[in-house]
Design brief:
- The structure is a homodimer of 207-residue chains.
- Chain A has 207 residues and is an alpha/beta fold.
- The first copy, chain A, has 9 helices and 6 strands; from the N terminus they run αααββαβαβαβαβαα.
- The first copy, chain A, has 2 domains: 49 residues, Helicase, Ruva Protein, domain 3 (Orthogonal Bundle); 108 residues, 3-Layer(aba) Sandwich (Dna Topoisomerase Vi A Subunit, Chain: A, domain 2).
- In chain A, the strands form 2 sheets. Chain A has a 4-stranded parallel β-sheet with strand order 4-3-5-6.
- In chain A, a hairpin with a 6-residue loop joins β1 and β2.
- In chain A, α1 packs across α2.
- The longest helix of chain A has 17 residues.
- The first copy, chain A, starts with 5 loop residues before the first helix and ends with a helix.
- At the A-B interface, α1, α2, α3, β2 and α5 of A face α1, α2, α3, β2 and α5 of B.
Chain lengths: 207, 207
């Protein structure tokens, strides 16, 4: 593309570096920003700069936080004997939105992937293993994805943690609430039959 | 969504103000930016700030420019007697990319739309009408869209400009190069038959 302004060209180039945004979308966004008031554009760029400067990773669980220890770990009402292992901060947000979980998290920041050169030492799991060693926790819930990498990581942690007297659980896989059986894939359906639960507990969790 | 960091929440909110970007995409972009080096994030925000501070609208044609007069208007090799009327800066970029047009532009910055409260006085057309009045131009090419608003704007300008001894033309509408006739819509096909061109000129413009 042939821009009449070098500044526009530079901005389009930078915006197009964002994932999932091509040059045409970047141009559309840049022209949108040009039409906005200066104060709105400043609010956007300042919030992005602050994001990078002020947001930290919680020293305990790896969650994003404005402080050294995140709100969840610092909350005295959370049950510190249960830890849910997740891959990503987005998983924490998703689980927190349910309002059903009162324990802590361990955010690995990824999963073991030999293809991408990510080994166990690249993941944020030290705090969890230390807690298990010091017998500070009673239960670990595996909340990783069911991809091959996710399953590998879960199995790695399972082997490490089974040395300690811990309850090791995994989040239930099954037919989504509201979904019809006929459209479910076979693996999910098979697993949801194998891991069937008492009827009373299946209605209790809805309330 | 329930964020563990106020700075993250603010950044997601600001990014989600961009057109076509919802909160989930905004969160994905914010987490991507968090993983980038500080220098890359600064390059993005600085380029956006500079865009707003330094980019001007050309006083002659309304195109974007780093100077008071844009590169196209300032170029002594461009034919200043022909003006192509377009809606948007993106249209200028599209036409410039063809390398086939050597005249100037008039970027209206919109089209007449009573529904959105945009009247002729909101559009950047004064410079064009002045040029016509002073007999500085020989030809005006209408390059606006074929929406009702685009056609209305073209007709408005046509009425204004037909007072002067000008050649008034419109860009050709027809079957796109490479398209097959059977898939063309009827209006386009009818117009491309009505506005058929001598065979010699149809092959000349490809070269």
């Amino acid at each position: 593309m042939n821009f009449s302004s070098k500044h526009l060209e530079k901005a389009v180039e930078e915006i197009a570096h964002l994932p999932g945004i091509g040059r045409k979308t970047a141009l559309r966004l840049a022209l949108h920003l040009l039409r906005q008031e200066e104060i709105q554009v400043m609010a956007l760029t300042e919030s992005i700069n602050l994001l990078k400067e002020a947001v930290k990773y919680c020293k305990n669980c790896g969650n994003l936080s404005d402080h050294d220890i995140c709100e969840i770990c610092a909350n005295p009402r959370r049950d510190k004997t249960i830890v849910c292992v997740v891959e990503d901060i987005r998983d924490v947000i998703a689980i927190e939105n349910t309002g059903q979980y009162q324990g802590l998290y361990q955010v690995l920041g990824g999963v073991i992937s030999p293809m991408e050169g990510i080994g166990p030492s690249d993941l944020n799991m030290t705090a969890l293993l230390q807690k298990a060693e010091k017998a500070e926790i009673d239960e670990v819930i595996f909340g990783l994805g069911t991809t091959m990498e996710g399953e590998t990581t879960t199995f790695y942690l399972y082997k490490k943690l089974s040395l300690y007297p811990l309850k090791l659980t995994a989040i239930a896989r099954g037919i989504a609430v509201g979904d019809q059986l006929e459209y479910a894939d076979e693996v999910t359906l098979a697993r949801s039959i194998a891991n069937r639960v008492p009827y009373e507990s299946s209605i209790k969790s809805d309330s």
